[in-house]
Each structure stands twice: as structure tokens, then as C-alpha cells.
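$ fold --in a.seq
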Amino acid sequence: MPARSTILLMVWTCAVVSSARSQTTEDLQRRIEELELRHSAEVDALREELRAVTRDAPREVQDGEPVPRRGLSEGGQTTVFDNLFNPAISVIGDFVFAGSDQDDAFDRLNRFTLRDVEVGFVGRVDPFASYQVYLHIEEETGFEIEEAYVFVDDALPDTFELKVGHYSVDFGKFSALHDHDLPMLDKPQVLQDYLGGSLRGTGVELHHWTGLGDTSTLRWSAGITNGIQGDAHSMFGPAAGHHHSHDGADVESFGKRRFENFAFHGRATAVVELGAAATVQVGASIAYQPKAVRFFEDTSMQPFRRSFEQRVVGLDATYRNVDQATGRGVVLVGEALWSTQEFSNDGFDVSRVGAFGGHLCGEAFLGRQWSVGATAGAFEHAEDASERSSDYGAFATWKVDEFNRLRLEARRFQDPGPDSFGISMQWTIILGTHGHGIPW
């Protein structure tokens, strides 16, 4: 009997344990199902939140259909590990050997020079605007911000565009070009003397273009900047070296900036098609600062300020006839400039000088890789129109490909000082995507 009781007790215990295990398994399964339902509800809530955020957000277009911006937040950002919004990056190296018969240019000539390393960052902020930054780095002087601006190209009505920041002012054919984009080594001498090379400023510039019939296009721009400022990186001539022109500050500045102390600029240009490959472009530009302020000290070391008027007007014309299939053709550019500026060394004796100058450039393309060209220029000096300078030269360019270019150039300079001769070998390398738009 005891044996039977023991056996029955064991059977009952096993049944109880089995029942408990079954109950525990059912509870766990039920809890898993509840968690899955809760997780699904949370995911649905997140999706609805994403739809609410992106419903009214600016939309991009893909294959003709609008698509929501990427990202989980209202600003369109994702995570710190996401590189979808990285800008396009480029690095340009401009290496030059410049030789000359000048006797007083040990640090500049008859030597190898890393004239320019340009680092560019370009990317779209959103469907309405892009941001562009170009840093200029020199072997000896370090780096500077060459350009940094927002370009609003898809937000204003019609074909209006807006540039805001520090930028190359829209003036003439060559002033706004970066040095490595020139058809020759240096900016024309007249631009260096009248504008300081590349005319740059910090401000706002409005653009607009429109069609004139079926074969013509008109484009104009107008802007306001803090002042007329030049930036030159030339190798030869009377303005050689890297320097900035500005409104001057011999002593510490003081006082209030007024509206007439700003600088104003504008340009209008039209392009007319003459055939399948030929076009003619004509343009007019102006840069004007009614009262550029400089600061001086009198004989008792008391600071005072004087205002000076500055005005530069330019006319330019370009003939272009290049066969896109073969790369053969010719480009001819001519530009004339009138400068009217006031100068003073001490703030008391002020001279008003009117000067005239111009330059020509022609380039014949023998194919996609080879071209030859010639340049010539003459001008009256902006500070003393009785002094005149001129130069002429020739160059040959070999574009190994779109990222690799070699150029040989020779130029002769006739200046108030000793005449001089220069020869240069230039090697320009482009790493990454690069481009500065249409040279209007």
C-alpha cells in the first residue's frame, strides 16, 4: 500500500508540474503577443509623425514627381553618422615657375611658386538655395576666404536669383574669374590697376535674365557691398604679388557708416546667337562708391576722416565660335575701362584722376586639348594718368584632360620704370568636381 501511495503521489506531482509549465508557456506567449502589438502601435505612431513633419516641408522632384525630403526632423537632418548632406569638395593646385629679367624681385621671380591652392565646398542647403565656400591657400601667407555666399536660385519669382555673402562682384569678363580659370596666367594689368585685380565685396547681389526673341538672351545684375575692394595674385607687372586694395585705414577707424559709404555695382549683358556655334556677347559694368572713407592724422596726431569718390565703368565684347563636336574654334575678348577716382596721401591734398585703359585676348582652339593665344593691353595709371603702361604676350595651353592643364606663356612689359620680360610655366591640377558657372 505504501508503494502504491508513493506511485500515485509521484504521478500527481508530475501532472501538477506539467500543468504549471503549460500555464507559464501560455503566459509568456500572451506577453510576447502584447509586446508585438505595442511595438506595432509605436511604429505606426512614428510613421504618422514623419508624415506630419514632411507633409508641408519643401519637396524635391525625382522623375517628375515630388518626393519628401530625407530625414526624421523638421530641419531635414538625419543622424551624426549620415553623410547624405555632405557638400561636393574640390581642391585646385596652381604651380608656376616664373622667370624674368627684373633685378629686384628675388622673392617672386626666377623661382618655383605654389601660387594657389583653392579648396571649394559646394552643396545645396535645400531645394531653394546652395551654399558655396572657396578658400585660398598660399605657400607663404596662409589662407583666406576667397568667397563664401548663399546662392538663392529657386525661390524668387520668374528667373530672379540672389547672392548673399562674400563674393566676386559681377563686373566685366575677367574680374570675377578665379585666377586658375583665366585663359592666361594673370589678370589683365588694367584690371589690377583700376580694380585691384578681382573685384570682391561683402553684400547682396540680385540677378535676372530673360529671352530676347529666339536667339538672344539678356541678363542683368545689381548689388551693394561694404566697399570697392580688390584681390590680386599676379606674378608679373607693376602690380605683381598678393595684395588687397581697400578703402584704407592709416589710423584706427571711427565714426558711423552711412548709406553713401556703401559701394554699388551693376552689369548688363546680352548674348546673340549668330549660328550653330557662333555667338556675340556685349556687356556694360559699373562699380561706384560715392564716399569711400579713409582715416588720417594731422600734425598734432589727431585723427580725422576724409571721403573719396570712386567710379569704374567698363564695356566688353566677346566673339565665340567653337565647334562642340571637334573642339576647334576661336574666342576673342575685348574690354575698355574708365576710372575716375580721388586719392590723397595725407588727407589734405586730394587729387581727382580720370584714366582710360583696355585689353584684348584671343585664343584659337586647335582641338579639345591644344590651344594658342595672344594678349595685349595698355592703360593710364589710376593715380596718375600721365604715367602709362602696356604689355603684350603669347601663350600655349595643353589640356591633358579636364583635370590637368599645362601652359607656357611669354610677356613683355613697358612701364614707367624699367621695361621687363617674363616667361612662365604653369601646371594646374583639379581634384574633385569644380565649376563657377557661366562667364557672363
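$ fold --in b.seq
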Amino acid sequence: MIATEDVDKLMELVHRIESTEGILADWSLPGGHTESAAYEIARTVCRRAERCAVRFMESSATDVQPEVLAYLNRLSDVIWLFGRLIEHNAGVNSRLREDSNGGPEFSRAW
């Protein structure tokens, strides 16, 4: 059973990682580091589980804990941040957008 406290613990972890000086706070290109790429796959699986839980909740007469969705959502945030933390600690720049001569940010993906 997932409790509100479990979701709160994940939120605390999110805030702790986000407070890391210099950690990416923008979109990123996955796969810049082997280990962070594995976290991207884990995050994909977690998001898939979240979508499945939503479909189950919408189609089922069985009551499902609302904390399940909140937990899966926060868990995917933590997984994403773990990948960014690995890249940050390894000195990998995975930012999707780069500053261009002080002007607007443009995507490296285009």
C-alpha cells in the first residue's frame, strides 16, 4: 500500500537533488552518458506504468489508491533527476538548448 508519506519522501528527494548547484533544470538529450541512458529507460518504463494505472483506474470498478498515480509520477521525476545527477557529476552537458550570443535559447536537436 502506498501512503501519502511515500509520495512526500519522493518529493523531498526531488527537492534535495534539484538544489544541487549546476544541475540541469531544462530539457535534456538522453544518452549523453551510459549510466544516465539506463535511467532514461527506467523512466520510460515508469511513465508507461503510470499510463497503465490511469487506464486501469478509468476502466475498473475497483477503487485504486489515488496515491499510486502521484507516487509513479514523482518516481519518474526522481529517476530523471538521477540521470541528470550522473551526467552533472561526470561533466556531461546534455542540455537540449544552448545560449547563443546572449540571445534566445535554441535547440541542438534542430
